[in-house]
Amino acid sequence: MTSQPSVLQAVFDHIDAHADEAVKTLRTLLRQPSVSAQNIGLETCARTLQDLMRAAGVEDAQPLPTDGGPEVILGTEAGASPDVKTLLCYGHYDVQPPEPLELWHSDPWGAEVRDGVIYARGATDNKSGCLAFVEAAKAYRAVAGATPVRLKYLFEGEEEIGSPHLEDFVWKHRDRLQCDASIGLDGGVNRTSLRPEVHLGIKAILYIELRCKTLSQDTWSGRAQMLRSAPWRLIECLTSIADPATGVIKVNDWYDGLVLPDEWDEEFLRDELQHFDRQEFMRQMGAENLSTDDDFELLKRAHYGASANICGLTSGYAGEGSKTIVPAQATVKMDFRCPPGLEPAEQFRKLQAHLEQHGFDDIELLLINARKNPYKVSSREDIAQATFRAAQRVFGTAPVVHGVSIQGLIMLAIPHPAVLSGFGAAENNLHGPNENMPIARYIQGIKYAAAIYHEYALATTPGYST
Fold this sequence. Notes:
Blueprint: H1 5-17, H2 19-30, H3 42-55, E1 62-64, E2 72-77, E3 86-92, E4 112-114, E5 117-119, H4 127-144, E6 150-156, H5 166-172, H6 174-177, E7 181-185, E8 197-199, E9 201-202, E10 204-213, E11 219-220, H7 230-241, H8 263-275, H9 278-285, H10 295-304, E12 307-315, E13 325-326, E14 329-338, H11 344-357, E15 363-370, E16 375-376, H12 382-395, E17 400-402, H13 407-413, E18 418-421, E19 436-438, H14 439-460
Helix pairs in contact: 1-4, 1-14, 2-4, 4-14, 5-13, 8-10, 12-14
Keywords: Hydrolase, Metal-binding, Protease
GO molecular function: metal ion binding; peptidase activity
Organism: Deinococcus detaillensis
């Protein structure tokens, strides 16, 4: 089986010729709310995605139930011949809540186009990524009759809340989902170099809530000197967990087992450092300072370091004017990013022990989610090399490679190398107001998916050549 250079170019040409159709399909999906955190619109969105996939030629696209969660959409592409490898295409159709709504310049579910940019929740994360896989396969079928590798689609509806039902689903359907490698397209390009990013691993997430209640009800602040304040007590607890100045987690044995970057990882970091623009990054983030003045250490922390982050803190009165009270209770939500070697369930037990040992038994600790299996894949894997080459081919530049988001759970049931990349704009406002996807970037993303199929076939199929 052979493939001439003109075949992939013909696929690219087909994608360009049908760009308006692809954009229309994406806007249809974006107009359907699908907020997993609030259980809004998930069933309808799953059926919308199924219909769009079938209309694109994925005849067996099918929503399958999970045990208590939203449906997972599965589908397949047979590939050009029986001896080709199988690539699992992972994505998620659920999105973050759009709030605060007042900061959006248009309806977050309107998929409005302004100056060639689509604005909608899910435009980058991750509805465009799901459909890029499907549109690339559609183009391949139109040009060559079939995709050069066998494809299996898995699009879930709970990624934004930690995929609590995905592991069980994959175990139940592992025979159907067997693959040689997997790829996800979820996110944007590097914020300062504008080069595509390729992630060869994932940090797992531990998400918790701390609750402190010191009084039966809010009371007059004239008695503050007599009472224990819930917010101050919670702040005391938080500063025992992590150093706010350095970010170092102070829980005993927290870093035990952490997998440190190897020589390949450090080489990737040095390459990224050459293109890192500190001032531009700070401008984009609206930041006055960063966690260290050492740019190499900064990138190392970002890609390989553990973190303790406060997502939200609630207590007392925060309305207009003044209200002189001692708040009765305080609550904080936190996420801990756990690199390879730090399993979230074990880190949660360490946190429990920390609270007990430091006398914080008056503070309630709740486990919201412990997303399993932080992982790391070798840069020498076929799927990694194929993604590097596809990025170079489509974007005209080598990607930024990070040695270390949900394929880790799939790998528990189906061991395989997994890679994550993306194609959104640098300032895509992922998870924020006015999330967006430039149309030109979306078309480029479809070509990226097609090039990954092509390059993976080159790496794995005897007789397939340029």
